[in-house]
Design a protein that fits this description.
Two copies of one chain form a homodimer.
Chain A: H1 18-36, H2 39-42, H3 45-52, H4 56-62, H5 66-87, H6 95-111, H7 114-126, H8 133-145, H9 154-175, H10 181-196
Chain A binds a DNA duplex (30 and 30 nucleotides) through residues 8, 16-17, 19-20, 23, 41, 44-46, 54-58, 60-61, 64-66.
Chain lengths: 205, 205
DNA sequence: ACACTTACTAGAATCCGTTCTAACTTCGGT
DNA sequence: ACCGAAGTTAGAACGGATTCTAGTAAGTGT
C-alpha cells in the first residue's frame, strides 16, 4: 500500500488510448458499485476485475493496490463535492457558518452510500496517502470560509485542518452508529464556532 | 473485526484461573514486543501465538481478531498514561495548557515506539471499537482541563473530543513522516487555545 | 475418584490481497 | 504489411488472517 497515481492514471499523463481511459472508468465504476453495498469486503479485487471486465493483472496495473483504488474512488467523490460547491456556494454569513455548510453537505452526500463512505474513509485514514484527503478538505474549508482573504496564515490552515479532523472523526462515529446526522451537525457547529469564528467580529456562542 | 472484550477478557469477569491471566499477559506482552519493532506486519497472529507459547486457536479464543488484540494493547498503554498523569498531574495554569501538556506527554510516549504507535493508532481508527479510544481520551482531557468543575456541559465534552480528534490526526501525520514533534506541539497548541480557552478569562492568543 | 464440561494444542483448510507466468493483442514506427 | 515494445488475459501460486477439526489436558460438581 503506497503509490498514489499510477502508470496509466486518470486525467494525468500515461493514458494512451481511449480504451484505456474507458477501462479505468469501468474499473472505478465497478469498484464504487461494489463498495456501495457490502463495503470494503464486498469490493474484492477479483470481483472488481471481473465486474469491470478486465483481468486481475490488469486491474493491478491500473491500481497497484486496493488502497490505490480506494483513493481514486474517493478522489472522484471529492471532485463531485467541489463542483457541487462551485455550483452552489455556501451562503452563510460567517466563516464558521460556511464551513459547517460545506461539511454537512459532504456528510449528506456520504450518508447516501454509507457502506461506500465507511469503506472509503477508513481506507483513507489508513493509507499512506500522498494526496491527502485531509489536506484537500482543509484547503476547501479555508477557501470556503473565506479566511484566506489575502493572507492565509499558518494559524488559519491549522484551524481548518483541525475542523477537518473533527469532521472525519464524527463521520467515523456516525458510521459506527454512534451519531445521528443531527448529532454531527450540532457537534460540528460547536467545534467550528470555536475554531473558525473571527473573534473580534462575529461570536456565535 | 468487531468484538471488543471477549470471553476470557482482562480484568473483567471470565478469567477463571491464574494460568489464564498469565496466558493473557504473555500474549499481550508478545504482541507489544513484536509490534514495537516491525509494526503491524511483524505482529502476525501465528508469531504472537508462538512467542506467547499458546496455540493459534487459543490466541483467537482470547482475542477473536487481530484488532481485538491491538485494542487490548492500546488499553494497556492508556492505563499507563493515566497513571502517569495521576502521578504527575499537568501543572499549566490554563485548561488548554493542561490539555496540551497531557497530549504532548502521550505523544512522547508513543514516539518511543513509533512502529507500535503506528500499528495501534491505525488499528484503532479501523476498529468498531466499543471501548472507544476517543471517548476515553476525551474524558481524560475533560478531567485534566478541569473543565468539569461541577458542570460538565455537553459543549465541553464536544470540545474535548474535538481536541482529541485533532491530536489523533496529527499523530497519524507524524507517523506518515509529515510532522515533527515540534509541528504537532505548535498545531495542538493552536487548536487547544481555540477549543479550550475560557474566553472571559485567560486568552492565550 | 468419576464423569463431564470447558480450555488448549497441533495442524489442516479457507479466504482474499498480491505476485508471477506464459501466451495473446494492440499499437506505433517503418 | 511487418516487427518489437507495451498492454492484456487466464490462471496458478504465495502469504497472512481467520476458521475448522480431532484429539488431549484441566477444572468442577458429586
Amino acid at each position: 500500500m503506497e503509490a498514489v497515481q499510477d502508470l496509466p492514471p486518470g486525467t494525468a499523463p500515461g493514458l494512451r488510448t481511449k480504451s484505456q481511459l474507458q477501462r479505468r472508468r469501468r474499473i472505478l465504476q465497478a469498484a464504487a458499485a461494489l463498495a456501495s453495498r457490502g463495503g470494503v469486503e464486498a469490493m474484492q479485487m477479483r470481483t472488481v476485475a471481473e465486474r469491470a471486465g478486465v483481468a486481475l493483472g490488469t486491474l493491478y496495473r491500473y491500481f497497484p493496490s486496493k488502497m490505490d483504488l480506494v483513493v481514486a474512488v474517493v478522489g472522484e467523490e471529492l471532485d463531485m463535492l467541489e463542483s457541487s460547491i462551485a455550483r452552489r456556494p455556501p451562503a452563510a454569513a460567517t466563516p464558521d457558518g460556511r464551513a459547517v455548510d460545506v461539511l454537512m453537505r459532504a456528510t449528506r452526500g456520504l450518508m447516501r452510500e454509507p457502506e461506500l463512505a465507511d469503506a472509503l474513509i477508513r481506507a483513507l485514514i489508513l493509507a499512506d496517502v500522498e494526496l491527502p484527503f485531509g489536506d484537500r478538505m482543509a484547503g476547501l474549508l479555508v477557501r470556503v470560509a473565506g479566511l484566506s482573504d489575502g493572507r492565509a496564515t499558518e494559524e488559519q490552515a491549522v484551524l481548518a485542518a483541525s475542523l477537518g479532523a473533527v469532521w472525519v472523526q464524527e463521520l467515523l462515529e456516525m458510521l459506527r452508529g454512534r451519531r445521528t446526522y443531527e448529532d454531527i451537525q450540532r457537534r460540528i457547529e460547536i467545534a467550528a464556532s470555536r475554531l473558525l469564528a473571527e473573534f473580534p467580529a462575529s461570536r456565535v456562542e
